[in-house]
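FAQ: What does the model actually see?

It sees only this:
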Amino acid sequence: MSVGVRVGSIVDEVGASSFLNAFFSTITALLEQNKLGSRFPQISISFYKGKVEAENIKNAVNEFREIKQEFAKYPPSSVVWDLEDRTKQPPWGKNISPDITSMENYFVSSTGRDLFDLLLEAFEYAEKKSLPVTIEEI
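And it is asked to produce this:
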């Protein structure tokens, strides 16, 4: 099953739900010491559950920027594919592009976009238009 991010009538494809779950799992494992939402409640709780309300978008944008900056400090081998089952590995294993140099650029959407760029663009647009951001199956 593929998922996307919706802002108003615009939907950007992210990829498999397991891929997006890995993004959230890695945030929680590396930056929140396995305590979901302890540092990034808009991303790790609200967005993970599927929706960030318009009034919380600005905080979510700030959280994404901080997460991206901190992910730059971690090597690609730090990925956590599933927080609930740490034995799970990405379908590609350790066979990744040499262009991936840290967790900051590890996540790339199924359409080839850097996931942080895709999400920040969506959230900044939502902030400008005062709209919520949702995750949905596509």
